[in-house]
Design a protein that fits this description.
two-stranded antiparallel ribbon; five-stranded mixed β-barrel; alpha+beta; 7 strands
Length: 275
């Protein structure tokens, strides 16, 4: 049963074209009472009436007027109201602090060639890295999200290696953690005025995914083991991995970044509202 008192959290938002050539919004909401998901459509007329800032991931909203299907898991929204605005992400000072922490870790890479390559890449693309999200909706989906996710991965990796896996090549592990999602600085766009995240259509014309980008980057530079860890970090081919961890007789090290990345994505800061 539809109720205007229910508060929803915005999970994702995108705009596309209909066959008639008009705009159509797709909005995914989570019921904050029972955590069920609601998939919503907004026609162009509604989009023109509503402030785009309403659709920021993490916002809490109330549906004022809508028509629902029989199971109340899909709806057509005609009016929406903001209850609480989500934080767009890290401040400039916070981003600079986390960026510097990452560089401090990278400076500890013992292999001179690898250290100079990774630090050089971060320095060259610092402005993009500092604002990029780590995902559109799944995890770290806010301004500076990629920084937070990258730092979490590096620090988790160093802790695990120190405690249990001293034979793991730490240089390669840290470099792979730093670069596994670096293609996201091109794969995503983020509007710094309203915090909305979308896919970059130009990136999709040249690359299959951020994984392919980072893998190619490291292979081109000759860091093959780093590249293989990056290739496997999504775990399964159907999840976007180039190297499927279901394959037999893989070297032990290729599993490492997948599990580190998964921990950060599952238990890290999911949205800016959790900062």
């Amino acid at each position: 049963m539809f109720s205007t008192t229910v508060i929803y959290e915005v999970l994702s938002y995108s705009v596309g074209d209909t066959k008639a050539g008009t705009k159509m919004g797709k909005l995914q909401l989570k019921n904050t009472e029972d955590e069920t998901t609601l998939n919503c459509i907004l026609w162009e007329e509604t989009l023109n009436r509503l402030d785009v800032k309403l659709f920021r991931v993490g916002n809490l909203v109330r549906i004022v007027s809508a028509s629902f299907n029989e199971r109340f898991n899909n709806c057509l929204i005609s009016s929406l109201e903001l209850v609480k605005e989500a934080k767009m992400g890290l401040t400039e000072e916070e981003r600079e602090e986390i960026y510097n922490k990452i560089i401090e870790h990278l400076e500890q890479i013992k292999d001179d060639e690898l250290r100079l390559f990774v630090i050089g890449y971060f320095a060259e693309h610092k402005d993009k890295i500092k604002v990029s999200p780590a995902a559109k909706s799944m995890h770290h989906n806010f301004i500076g999200g990629l920084l937070v996710h990258t730092l979490e991965c590096i620090e988790l990796a160093k802790l695990v290696i120190k405690q249990s896996f001293q034979r793991m090549n730490e240089d390669n592990a840290i470099a792979a953690c730093a670069l596994h999602d670096i293609g996201k600085i091109y794969e995503y766009t983020i509007d710094e005025e309203n915090g909305l995240i979308d896919y970059d259509e130009e990136f999709k014309k040249e690359w299959f995914s951020h994984t392919q980008y980072a893998y190619s980057l490291c292979m081109t530079k000759g860091f093959k083991k780093v590249a293989k860890m990056i290739a496997a970090h999504h775990g399964r081919a159907e999840w976007g991995a180039i190297l499927d961890l279901n394959e037999k007789d893989l070297e032990n090290y290729v599993y490492f970044v997948h599990h580190i990345d998964d921990l950060s994505a599952k238990f890290g800061k999911i949205s800016a509202g959790m900062l």
